[in-house]
């Protein structure tokens, strides 16, 4: 078993309605949120990219919301198709893209 220290790479946060306000709305950093589901083929392609971004970028928070478990959050942010990626800054959604896309396109959303 590996023990991580605070200086190691960040990982993707699982976002739920219980921690959404703290992790997303009140975050001082921009937050990249991937709305996904286990049965979604394109989500499985985007998932590893989201993981990479979380490891590489210390200046943002990266989270995932499972739409089957967090229906209210998906509805609140108008997620009709997945994967949907939304970037929040200062608690507000500022970028939204739908569908599988390359890493460069995802990074453009936060840069």
Task: Tell me what the structure shows.
By secondary structure, the chain is an alpha/beta fold. It has helices spanning 20-25, 41-56, 71-76, 103-110; strands spanning 13-14, 31-36, 61-66, 84-89, 92-98. Helix 2 (41-56) links the parallel strand 2 and strand 3 (61-66). The N and C termini lie far apart (35 Å). Mean pLDDT is 93; it is low at 1-8.
Order of helices and strands: EHEHEHEEH
Shape, please? globular
What is the CA-atom radius of gyration, in angstroms? 13 Å
Averaged pLDDT? 93
Structural class: alpha/beta
Strand order of the largest sheet: 1-3-2-4-5
- Give me the count of strands: 5
List the total number of helices. 4
What's this, in brief?
This protein is α/β, with parallel strands linked by helices and 111 residues long. The protein contains four helices and five strands, in the order βαβαβαββα. It is globular, with a radius of gyration of 13 Å.
Record the SSE blueprint.
Blueprint: E1 13-14, H1 20-25, E2 31-36, H2 41-56, E3 61-66, H3 71-76, E4 84-89, E5 92-98, H4 103-110
Distinctive features:
alpha/beta, globular
């Amino acid at each position: 078993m590996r023990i991580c220290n605070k200086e190691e790479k960040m990982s993707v946060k699982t976002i739920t309605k219980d921690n959404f306000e703290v992790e997303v709305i009140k975050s001082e950093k921009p937050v990249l949120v991937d709305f996904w589901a286990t049965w979604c083929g394109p989500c499985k392609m985007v998932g590893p990219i989201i993981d990479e971004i979380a490891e590489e970028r210390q200046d943002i928070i990266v989270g995932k919301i499972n739409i089957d478990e967090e229906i209210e959050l998906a509805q609140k942010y108008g997620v009709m198709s997945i994967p949907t990626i939304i970037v929040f800054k200062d608690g507000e959604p500022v970028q939204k893209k739908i569908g599988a896309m390359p890493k460069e396109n995802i990074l453009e959303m936060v840069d």
